[in-house]
Amino acid sequence: MQKRTNQDYQTMPWKNGGGSTTELAVFPPGAGIDDFVWRLSRAAVHVDGPFSHFAQIDRSLAILSGEGLVLHSDSEQRTSAPVRLTQASMPYQFAGELPIFAELCGGPVIDLNLMTRRDVCQHYMQRLTAGEHHVSATEAQQILLYCAAGTAKIRMSDGDAAELTQAGDLLIIDEEHERSGIRLQISAEEDAILYLMRISFLNLGESNHGPLG
């Protein structure tokens, strides 16, 4: 189990000046935008604009601050209604190839974005609030737990423990025994907002997952 905080991240401004991206974690360590298996980032969005095109990538998006975004699909069929995301919304999953235009609801937002390479792994992101959460991710080889607000205590099935004490804290948890999955208990305080992300590799023999540097 590995913990990261805001002091560990680097922020990069967008070339078009419309915002910035803070990379929280990437696998394999040191991978770039063209060769990552998965990538977790936080973006500050200042203006309306199109999402970048990511072939063979699945994405999940959640709003951390601000009034929110309206996502318009620019597909040829135009059959999908716009999707409005706010801080209270569940994470929204979509294909990276889908042409999407993001419209700010009323000012800048900060979002949380998980991307996984479709032919290597799958992911599931969920939003957790106050209470006791027992996680039995028997299918997952890695779990990411991000603190958006409040505090929480985490205890692993093997007795390891950690705390998330401020917004921006991130835990990275790796499966210790092949094909056994990950089990943990999360005690989230009254004001806590957490995002739990499960990552499952399609071919464990090729995943070579392990601690992130």
UniProtKB/TrEMBL annotation:
Signal peptide residues are: none
Instruction: Report the InterPro entries cross-referenced here.
Output: RmlC-like_jellyroll, RmlC_Cupin_sf, Uncharacterised_HutD/Ves
One Pfam family this sequence matches: HutD
Gene3D superfamilies the record matches = Jelly Rolls
- PANTHER family of this UniProt entry? PROTEIN VES
Q: What is the protein name stated in its UniProt record?
A: HutD family protein
